[in-house]
Write a structure and sequence with these properties.
Shape: globular
Number of helices: 10
Bound molecules: heme D
């Protein structure tokens, strides 16, 4: 795998020859050093050569300096690559290859970055998350060829592996008084930490340093170990029995990642962990006790539909099957679901299920047998039977860019058990029947769609004991909507256009500064409360708002100077048992 870069270099050089020639002609000495340090190929060019006009700049001006390029590359990695891809081939967001961006022009790009779009592009400029200078920089950056980051094979992965506390040196019983099942692991996005918050007392029991912007938390089958993965692909393994809980091992599985999971099948509890990378496109299987990296596999290959080669098929969601010793690995750009059999990782068997391109996030139905995953750029959801290892169906959701999180399982008054997704690109909420035995006419069909707060929704949530369905809209450009949550009475879904109650969560938090977004509801263990993050800019106060599920009234606001940019929250019991 390490050889690939060498093989690809000539092709890349050909693609960026104009840019590199300009870099050399302009004597950008800094560019060469930036390249050697980071392994990225910096690109610079004059506006004239690119055919791009930028107000206030002359045609002979370089589009950016080497320092600006380095800064823009960092911002792109942190803010943009997730949706548009490192190589900018597009996925959740459209392709930003230079043929597209030159057509759009500097002004067009500048407007999109400033104001966002109802289809889910955040309003980076007007929200204050990027300064006017940064918006200008990014609009210029997307005009030049994207640099290709280096590979990250086993030698680098092994080098990044640190076992801080060996299994033999760990406690043999729980040393703290935490009710672990009702603990919440909360991402503190911009500080590179997670906060462990007691679900009974709302007290922050520990703040643990992790990789940058932890994307998700997952729990080992035993409930003892918490695994988190940063955007920078660093996995931390945290022992929840220690007092206070702490990281016992860490490893980097690439340079950009979003997903981690642990083996759950009986006989393999806590035995393996797996993490999937966005860059390089690969997954890594690790020892479940130590995080020792055991196997790395590339996901590069052919797309499931046209069967053409894709250089960057990123690993999106991963779940552990309850029916077989398998990980369900969803590969975004090729649209394949890989069932990775971990019963013998030396002679690794992988069942490849062609599903739909741009697989992203998803969750199980209430039985844990069927996995429903959004192919968001195709407006579809693919359903996989994890017992038979087969594709059941791909359904159009009726909305634009489904984005369910793990989705919500509810029992519909008319259609029985359904799984719910919201949409990034519009206000549609779609319900898919999931009960082939009891409701065969409805199974694997969209049985109902209705409207939520607006576009920019990311997560839906319910709980087996709840009578409500919650839908957020954190990426909606209207601050009133991005600061609120829509709640539907499940009983009311018998009507065609059910109405909803709006909970003004951001207002309830009492935060008056900034434009906080309300994101990702998560239930406590007994299903009596739902927690929402009030996610503000790094230099502004954020909070977690706890709502009483029965009364829909404010129950508690968790505020603490350490609670900086909270986003995802993962209740140990619900996450471990796939309750959502
Ligand atoms: Fe996420 C889940 C990828 C932006 C918060 N996000 C996921 C998953 C993937 C993913 C693949 C499923 C993981 C799994 O289940 O194994 N997310 C991406 C992106 O590529 C994207 C669109 C752009 C990016 O640059 O990362 C993106 N995500 C965001 C955010 O901006 C959010 C709101 C804040 C943040 O921390 O960056 C965000 N994503 C989350 C959360 C989950 C998630 C909280 C888990 C939800 C759950 O309930 O399971």
């Amino acid at each position: 795998m390490e050889d690939r870069k060498a093989r690809q270099t000539p092709r890349l050089l050909a693609g960026t020859s104009m840019a590199l020639a300009a870099t050399m002609a302009l004597g950008l000495a800094g560019a060469a050093s930036a390249q050697s340090k980071s392994g990225y190929d910096p690109a610079a060019n004059t506006l004239e050569k690119l055919g791009v006009e930028v107000p206030g700049m002359k045609p002979t001006d370089p589009i950016m300096t080497a320092d600006e390029f380095a800064r823009a590359k960092e911002i792109f990695f942190e803010r943009c690559a997730g949706c548009h891809g490192v190589l900018r081939h597009g996925a959740t967001g459209p392709a930003l290859t230079t043929d597209v961006t030159h057509e759009l022009g500097f002004e067009g790009a500048h407007d999109f970055i400033t104001y966002g779009s109802p289809a889910g592009m955040p309003n980076w400029g007007t929200s204050g998350e990027l300064t006017p200078d940064e918006v200008n920089l990014m609009a210029r950056y997307v005009m030049v060829e994207p640099p290709q980051p280096p590979e990250f094979g086993m030698p680098k992965i092994r080098k990044s592996w640190h076992l801080f506390v060996k299994p033999a040196d760990r406690p043999t019983k729980k040393m703290n008084d935490i009710d672990i099942d009702n603990l919440f692991s909360v991402t503190l996005r911009d500080t590179g930490q997670v906060a462990l918050i007691d679900g009974n007392t709302y007290e922050i029991r520990a703040v643990i340093d992790t990789g940058y912007a932890v994307h998700i938390s997952r729990i080992s089958a035993s409930g003892r170990y918490l695994f988190v993965i940063g955007r920078d692909a660093k996995v931390n393994m945290i022992d929840l029995w220690m007092d206070p809980p702490q990281t016992v091992a860490e490893v980097k599985i690439g340079s950009e990642a979003r997903s981690v999971e642990t083996s759950k099948f009986p006989g393999f509890e806590d035995k393996y962990a797996i993490a999937g990378a966005y860059w390089p496109p690969q997954y890594v299987i690790m020892d479940g006790d130590t995080l020792e990296p055991l196997k790395v596999e590339s996901t590069r290959g052919m797309t499931e539909d046209e069967q053409v080669y894709h250089p960057e098929p990123r690993v999106a969601s991963i779940v552990a099957s309850h029916f077989k010793p398998e990980f369900v690995v969803n590969v975004k750009e090729t649209g394949k679901v890989l069932m990775i059999d971990y019963s013998d990782i030396t002679n690794l068997k992988v069942t490849e299920i062609p599903a739909e391109r741009f697989l992203h996030d998803g969750g199980f139905d209430r039985t844990g047998r069927y996995f429903l995953v959004a192919a968001n750029a195709r407006d579809k959801v693919a359903i996989v039977d994890t017992k038979e290892d087969k594709l059941v169906k791909v359904v159009e959701t009726g909305g634009v860019k489904p984005h369910p999180g793990r989705g919500a399982n509810i029992v519909h008054p008319t259609y029985g058990p359904v799984w719910v997704t919201s949409h990034l690109g519009d206000e549609t909420i779609s319900l898919i029947g999931t009960d082939p035995e009891g409701h065969p006419d409805q199974a694997w069909k969209v049985v109902q769609t209705f409207d939520g707060l607006g576009g920019g929704a990311l997560f839906v949530k319910s709980h087996p004991k709840s009578e409500h369905l919650y839908v957020d809209a954190p990426l909606n450009p209207d601050p009133e909507l991005s600061g609120s949550v829509a709640v539907f009475n499940i009983a009311d879904l018998a009507q065609d256009e059910p109405s909803f109650t709006t909970l003004p969560i951001a207002e309830w938090s009492g935060i008056e500064e900034g434009q906080p977004r309300v994101v990702q509801g998560e239930f406590n263990k007994d299903g009596s409360e739902i927690w929402f993050s009030v996610w503000n800019a790094k230099d502004k106060p954020s909070a977690i708002v706890v709502v009483d599920d029965k009364t829909l009234k404010l129950k508690h606001v968790i505020k603490d100077p350490r609670l900086v940019t909270p986003t995802g929250k993962f209740n140990v019991y619900n996450t471990r048992s796939d309750v959502y």
